[in-house]
Amino acid sequence: MALTREQMAQRVARELKDGYYVNLGIGIPTLVANYVPADMDVMLQSENGLLGMGEFPTESTLDADMINAGKQTVTARRGASIFDSAQSFAMIRGGHVDLTVLGAFEVDVQGNIASWMIPGKLVKGMGGAMDLVAGADNIIVTMTHASKDGESKLLPKCSLPLTGAGCIRKVLTDLAYLEIEDGAFILRETAPGVSVEEIIEKTAGKLIVPDDVKEMTF
């Protein structure tokens, strides 16, 4: 069974480490804030100028002026800092973010990512994604494995305009966790109840299936 958005966020949260500075992109990545382990000190960064995002607010903690890059209301944890976007992008471009979590329309076997434009459709645009993929070494892409029409989003070559070239090494889809090495997707984990055969069928790019593929647990 395919992972829910919340389960995808839970799985990404397992990649967090104590002391990390983490940027969460728009969409599924924002949910990771709800699954940071209680005993772990992680600072979540938003390119609109907030370092130290907390969980999404309850009705009692809602502050309409406290938002993330996707214009969702958020909370600020103890020790948070607020600053202008110029300083925020200086952090990003300077390589000071330890982990970046982004959504995408397509990823290919060369680690290219397309996440900002679909010709003929209205989308939000580039935002800070180009700076994030250029300034970060550790990036996880979260996305559905295939489109609503069943077309694979893990491709031999991206068909949409690129956000960044050769920068992606880890992909978490609703079906699997994969790494990209030497021009191929390498299957590392399957979602609970999802067969390797289904993943092979829905992966258009070259896929390597090792003998030690694990099933995710929640």
UniProtKB/TrEMBL annotation:
Its EC number is 2.8.3.6. It catalyses: 3-oxoadipate + succinyl-CoA = 3-oxoadipyl-CoA + succinate. One of its GO terms (molecular function) is 3-oxoadipate CoA-transferase activity. InterPro entries: 3-oxoacid_CoA-transf_B, CoA_trans_fam_I, CoA_transf_AS, NagB/RpiA_transferase-like. Keywords: Transferase. The keyword Transferase applies. It is an enzyme of class 2 (transferase). Pfam families: CoA_trans. Transmembrane segments: none annotated. Belongs to the 3-oxoacid CoA-transferase subunit B family. This is 3-oxoadipate CoA-transferase. It comes from Pseudomonas alloputida. The lineage of its organism: Bacteria, Pseudomonadati, Pseudomonadota, Gammaproteobacteria, Pseudomonadales.
